[in-house]
Each structure stands twice: as structure tokens, then as C-alpha cells.
Amino acid sequence: MATALFAACTNDIVPQKGETKKPATTYVATFTGSQPKTTGEAKTRTTATHTRGGAAQVYWETTDRIWVKADDGTFQQSEPAQYQPYTPVNKSLANFALTTGSFTKPNLEVRYTNTGRADRVTIAANQTQASADDFSHLGTAGDCGTATSQGSNGNYTFTLNHKASYLCFVPRNLNIRVTGAGSYDLGPNIKLTKITVKADKPIAGTYDFSDGTLKDKTPTGGSNTITLTPGGEGFSMNTQTEKLAVNGAYMVIAPGTYNLTIAYTITDPATHITTDIVKTLPGFNCPEGQIRDMKANLTFKQCNYWDCHPLRLIVQPSKLYQLPNANEMYWYTYKGDPHWEENVGIYVVDGHLHMMNGMWFKKKAKILADEGITEAQMQSGYPKESPLDYRTTKGTWPPISILPQTTPVPNKADYFFLPAFGRYVWPGGMNPSVLKEFNSYGRYWSKDVFPDGHGWSMYHIIFSKDKVRMGASPTNVSFDAWNFETGESITQPRA
């Protein structure tokens, strides 16, 4: 514990000839606030440094003031904090001078609040953080604390015990970094632009602090939501590991146990796409005076060149079964009641977020029920009457295209969605492949070779707003390879 640098005193300024005597400045007491580092706890006031899973060190600001209960039982507010004259300055120690009141007794009560009253604390429903891993908004957001001073007769020391709770968010981007000929990295292209925390009861508002605690209090002007807004264009999401320096974000919250819903708002400035990735945390405890580290693994559905190229299936033979066979794809195409819809969902394409157009098809179970067939029948041939096994029958070409509907599907639970990713075209030479027909066409592989294609062509489905049909193409073109029922790519990008 540090001791006070100056005691109660009166400074008289003697005027020179012709000058007016300035009023005396009287310091009736000085309180020296000490802020030791304690694992997992915020023990200071305004600015914090934090190591995930480790210690938190917070520092006094020169704008900070404290309240002290005087000998007569009334709270008196101090002058702004003054750092002790060390080199370098130790900002975890500060002196607070009192100019009114009498302070002679031991064990005087000390309070820190972010309001103009000793008995009120406001947890802000809207909080702003200037840069990553910066907790300088701690005080304005709702930090508060109490202490019992040590000393007597105007010279006191104290250690502030914080009474709010604190959340530390370090989201990471789990979209796999794609390298090689088709190198597309989402990380540099997206920003964390907002974090919204919603609870099943108030977590912000103005709280009665007359007993020095926020626990089990119902605030006035209460809010079940706290929104944290990062400064600038937002914090970077260019990390697959938890890095405070990249996007560490802090929030002050009232202590308690809540059912939390956390929405991470992600923005791609190039495509102007903004989306929320939502996590739920039931029965989450926010302890008084402690920082809780919040793990958040964020991911998006994606399709890049190396995801979609059929030659990659050779490397993943165990997943080949997830593709529909030729006969199943016929059923999906011509009996799947295709519906075209635009702006359905957000996907990663070439390292950027895009709102996708695409086609809805009936799920296998719905087709089986509506057509009165078994799964074995669906796999072995098309159509129901006089079926052909397109896996082995030569000299047959797919039927003509059909016109999809553009009205909403009757029940999305009975359908699955395929985005219109387009296709990659190689212009030749050393040039990289170019994405064509994006958001206009979708092409998806079956797992079966076209019998008349000399082993070099495979069945696929092709669709647009104006048509849906079966086709067959050489395997040196890059269409998509997805599990229809789950809507997931069955291939793995390069490491």
C-alpha cells in the first residue's frame, strides 16, 4: 500500500504589491487509491489491460473522482485523481484530495461511481470501444466499486473492489484459409462492427448503489440489451486464433446469472453485406468484479475454386457417397418442385461475403412420400413407370429443361436450398480461373459417370431462374460438389 504524498494542509499565496490575494486552497484529507493486479478480477477503475484466462490490470484516469463518507456520515466527492510522481508514472496508484468535510476516523467508506452521486451507478446500454484490446471506456460504461480506507486524521489508503461485471470477447474466424492456385482468404475482408448482448432480464440501467452493490437490483430505465460498437470501420476478423490485439472487445454488464443471446455483427465493406452470427448461453454467470472470457467461433458457408472442383473428390473418396447418384438427381430435378429465390442467405465466395440467389428442391423424404416410391426405387431408376437406370443406360440424354417456380416454397422444412455459385472457367496459360455466371446459374455434380462420356464426363444438375435440367460435362470444369440434403460441400479446401 502506498501512503499519501501530502497531508491536510493550507496553502497561502502571499500577494505581491498591486496584486489581489488569491483564496487559499484547503485539503482536509488525501486518499491514495491502490490497484493491485488480481487474476480474473478488475481491481481498478477506468483503463484495463487483460490476458485471457489470466490477470486484469486497470488504471486510474486523471478525470476520476471518488466519494468518501465523512465523519458526519455524509458522502463528499474528491478532486480529480493525481498520479504519484514516479518515473515512469504508476497509474495504478493515485491521490484523491478532499476539500470539504471532516475525515479523522479510521475505516472510512470509499465509493467510485460513474454518476454525480455516491448512491447511483449507470450501466450503459450503448457502449463504444475505440480500438481493439482497449478498455478505456470502462468508467463511462458503468464501472463502479467500493473500499474501506486504512489510516486516520486525513491520511488514508484504500484498494478499490469493483462491483460491476465485465465480458471480454475475442471472436475468431473459422473459415478455412484457402491457398494455392485459387487463393481466397475471408479474414482480411470482413470486420466486426457490433456486438449485441440480450438477456432475459435487465443487464443495464441506473442502479441504486446506496449499499455498495449492484447484485439482485432492478434498475430504473432498465434494458435487457447492451450494444457494444467498435470504433472506425470495426475490428479485424483476420485471425483463426483468439488474439486480443486483433479484435479484443470489452463490455460492462450488471452482475447476475442470465440466459444470454450474443449477436456478432460482421460486415464486408467491399460487398456491403452485413450479417449477424448468433450464439446462446443459458444460465451464464456474470460474477461481481470479474471478467468473463467469451469464446466465439464464427464461420460461414463457403465455396471457392478448390472447394468445388470435382477432381478434389479423388482425395476424399470416403465422402463421395454423399453426392446423389444419377437417378436420384433425375428425381430431384424433375420431381423436386424447384423454386427460384433471390437473396436467400450469405455465403463466402472468393474471399468475400455475398447474398446468394438459388433454387429450392424437395428433400428426398418429401419426394418419396409425394411420388409413392421407396428409396431403393429412387436410387435404381427414373421415372416411376418404365424406369431407366441412367448410371448404365447408354444412348439416352436427359429430358428437356423445365421452368422453375418463382413463388415461395410451401414449407421450407420440406425443401433444401442450392446457391447459384456459377462456375470457374480457365482462360488458359498461366492465367487463374475466372468465376462466371455468379448468382445466375448453379451446377452441381452427381457421383456417377455419364455412360456415353468415355469415363471423362459426369452427370450434373444445372439451373437458373429460367430453367432446370440434367446435364453431363467433362470433369475438368469446376462445378459444385455438395451433399444435397445437408447443404454442405463434401470437399475440403487445401491447407
Helical content class: under 10%
Give the count of helical stretches: 6
Largest sheet: 6 strands, mixed
Category from helices, strands and their pairing: mainly beta
Beta-strand residue fraction = 35-45%
| Overall average residue pLDDT | 82
N-C termini distance: 53 Å
Number of strands: 38
Overall structural domain count = 3
Shape: elongated
* CA radius of gyration: 33 Å
Low-confidence regions: 1-25, 36-48, 179-183, 305-317
Characterization of this structure:
With 495 residues, this protein is mainly β. It has 3 domains: 146 residues, no CATH class; 136 residues, Immunoglobulin-like (Sandwich), CATH 2.60.40; 188 residues, no CATH class. Strands 13, 19, 22, 23, 25 and 26 form a 6-stranded mixed β-sheet that branches. A 5-stranded mixed β-sheet has the order 9-10-3-16-15, with no helix packed on it. A hairpin with a 2-residue loop joins strand 15 and strand 16. The protein starts with 8 loop residues before the first strand and ends in a 6-residue tail after the last strand.
